[in-house]
Design brief:
Number of helices: 7
Distance between the termini: 15 Å
Structural class: mainly beta
Shape: globular
Radius of gyration: 22 Å
Oligomer: single chain
Strand content: 35-45%
């Protein structure tokens, strides 16, 4: 008998329509989340054109990489670890990973015994390219505000976070761990999708706790879809975002979690300095009746020589469109963060971002649109027999 599979979005709509009894007819729910996941790194085995004794320093597109632990002495190749948060100015590990998955050529520079060895390489030419997330898919996260008078540089906002503003992270009711009874014995080895690539859960991640569980994940980058990952520039440096989807079996352990809606999921509001909790709101405040992408009125565009939105877009999604006279518009790299809506002086970008405890959200660091798309993709793979539970 074929399994009945629905996405987490489809299930939550049933519950809101007072059809929660239908959950007993469902076998699998595909849940997903997308957002900034700082604990992301990639392990590469990179062939070089020349042989050298041992790599002392390695750079990929200018991003500092960490050679080893295998020295690969005189083999003409090098093992490296690259952190998603490592960056050179506004280009970080997240942007590097996205470029590789897109098939772009990157520059490899190795320093050894006072000499520099270089190579131009694509992901297809890298035999080992594995992403490891040391802490991903936090069950719940936080909103951040600034209680002081001075704007603060922070990883939680593209711009300096000002008094009377807030940013937040977390996909709320569609997040996989929000919909599961979390047990590490059952999680280890469970198959998931990481940025579209089939991977596995290795166990609980770093900074895991009973109150704020998260997971450690690994997947092959060769099979990833560039849409689901990338860099995200903050005022404190470049970050990395990922998208994760997990199949959840509908059983008695998971049912009570699967029925929970945003209205009943806490979203703590913390002060950016010290991270102490100021108050506790709900995820419905930041996700109900909001826009997942900006509405763009291109006719308001003045085609400025310097476009502040192009400069500030965290994912570098705002680009010139030649057939519109060079005006800038967001492409598919748009993350729905909302920074454009509060930056353009001519109001080209309009977006409902919600608020938390009556403090307006001015930067969003999770993306439900990507998450819902991957949840749908996982559902289709299961139905087609391309993903075994």
């Amino acid at each position: 008998m074929d399994k009945i599979v629905v996405t987490i979005d489809e299930l939550k709509k049933m519950i809101r329509n007072n059809e929660e009894d239908k959950i007993d007819e469902i076998d699998i729910v595909t849940a997903a989340t997308c957002g900034i996941m700082s604990g992301t790194m990639a392990i590469f085995h990179i062939p070089m054109k020349d042989k050298f004794r041992k790599a002392e320093k390695v750079y990929l597109n200018g991003i500092k990489s960490f050679p080893g632990p295998c020295p690969n002495e005189y083999l003409g190749s090098v093992d490296v670890v690259v952190f998603g948060t490592e960056h050179s100015e506004d280009y970080g590990g997240g942007f590097l990973f996205k470029d590789l998955v897109r098939g772009k050529e990157v520059e490899v520079k190795v320093e050894c015994d006072g000499k520099i060895y270089t190579n131009e390489i694509t992901l297809e030419e890298i035999p080992t390219a594995r992403m490891i997330g040391t802490r991903m898919a936090f069950k719940n996260y936080v909103a951040v505000t600034n209680l002081g008078d001075e704007p603060i540089k922070t990883i939680f906002h593209r711009k300096f976070l000002r008094k009377g503003e807030a940013s937040f992270s977390g996909c709320g009711e569609i997040n996989p761990l929000q919909n599961m009874h979390v047990d590490e014995k059952e999680l280890v080895g469970k198959k998931i999708l990481l940025n579209g690539s089939e991977g596995v859960i290795l166990g609980f991640g770093t900074r895991h706790s009973k109150e704020k569980p998260n997971i450690m994940i690994s997947a092959d980058m060769h099979n990833m879809d560039a849409y689901y990952l990338g860099g995200f520039i903050t005022s404190a440096g470049s970050e990395v975002f990922n998208t994760i989807a997990i199949p959840i079996e509908v059983d008695e352990k998971h049912k009570e979690y699967l029925k929970k809606l945003d209205e009943y999921i806490d979203l703590p509001l913390t002060n950016v300095i010290g991270r102490n909790i100021v108050d506790v709101g709900k995820y419905s405040e930041v996700w109900k009746d909001v826009d997942l992408r900006p509405h763009v009125n291109v006719y308001r565009c003045r085609n400025c020589d310097f476009c502040i939105v192009e400069e500030l877009c965290p994912t570098k999604a705002v680009r010139r469109v030649e057939h519109l006279g060079g005006r800038r518009l967001p492409n598919e790299d748009c993350f729905g963060c909302g920074v454009c809506a509060t930056s353009c002086p001519y109001g080209i970008y309009q977006m409902k971002l919600g608020s938390i405890l009556d403090i307006p959200i001015t930067c969003r660091q999770s993306d439900r649109e990507r998450a819902l798309k991957l949840a749908e993709e996982l559902k289709e793979r299961i139905i087609k027999g391309e993903f075994d539970i």
